[in-house]
Amino acid sequence: GDIIKDVKFKTFGCGAAVATSSMVTEMVKGKKIEEALKITNAAVAEALDGLPPAKMHCSNLAADALHEAIKDYHQKTLKV
C-alpha cells in the first residue's frame, strides 16, 4: 500500500482544533493509507492525553478531515 510521506493541515479554529489537526499529522506520517483510515477521533483525543468534553468535537473534525483527504487522494490517483 501507499505510505504517507508528508501531510499538512490548514485550520481556522481554537487551540483544540489546531492541536487535534497537528496530532493527526504526527499519527499518520510513515503509515500506510489503510492504517491511517483506521484513526478515530477517540485515538486522536487519547494521543493528546484527553480533551475537555466541550472540545471533543475537534477530534471528530481532525479525523474526518483525514478520511476526506484520503478519499480525495484516491479519487485523484484513480483518474490518472
TrEMBL record:
Stretches assigned to the NIF system FeS cluster assembly NifU N-terminal domain: 2-78
SUPFAM superfamilies linked: SufE/NifU (SSF82649)
MF terms (GO), sorted A to Z: iron ion binding; iron-sulfur cluster binding
GO terms of biological process kind: iron-sulfur cluster assembly
Protein name: Iron-sulfur cluster assembly scaffold protein
Lineage, broadest ranks: Bacteria, Bacillati, Bacillota, Clostridia, Eubacteriales
